[in-house]
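Please check our next protein.
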Amino acid sequence: MDEERMEEMLPDEDVTEIEFVDIDGDAVAPAVEDTEDQPVDNISLLEDELAHMKELYLRKLAEFDNFRKRVEREKLEMRKTAGEDLVQDLLPVLDNFERALEHFSETAPESFKQGVEMISKQLLDVLGRRGLERFDPTGQPFEPEFHEAIQRVEDSEHLPGRVAWVLSPGYLYGGRLLRPAMVGVSVATEKDGEGKPEDAPDEEDGAQ
């Protein structure tokens, strides 16, 4: 049978290619899953997590702001309450001053003086319970931290560098200096020939 006859007998179909595979498996490429969608899924997860963290941050920020406002309101309320209590304690002192003034013409000068002194003591007692402390440094060494020197005094009764007299007493509040005492400081007299002591303030210096 010649070749032309054989070609006519074969069906007119596409030639099927046969792939030979190595039975050892060395030449066969492993099956790979499609990973094209994985990066998109990871980005979506990260976006969801970022949105969640942002929500938590905004929530905590709002809670902190509310806490700060509440603390400020409580502090303001405490200040108002403290001031109200102090004023209430001072009302009896004010009443006593008014009574003393009403009976000024009917009272002897000495009795009036004693009444005013009693009211002054009452006022100091009220403020003392609130933490106010009054100090009079007469005769004590001059201390720039607590005393304000307004004059140098040639006083033989006090050693140089000591407080000779007090114009206004000093006050402490809660252990802290509220107002220094305004004082005159003793210095050595010129006739002694000693000059000004080292611890006495200069007159032109004023407050230390």
Notes: Residues 38-102 form the longest helix (65 residues). DSSP finds three helices and six strands in the chain. The longest strand covers residues 147-154. The chain has a mean pLDDT of 78.
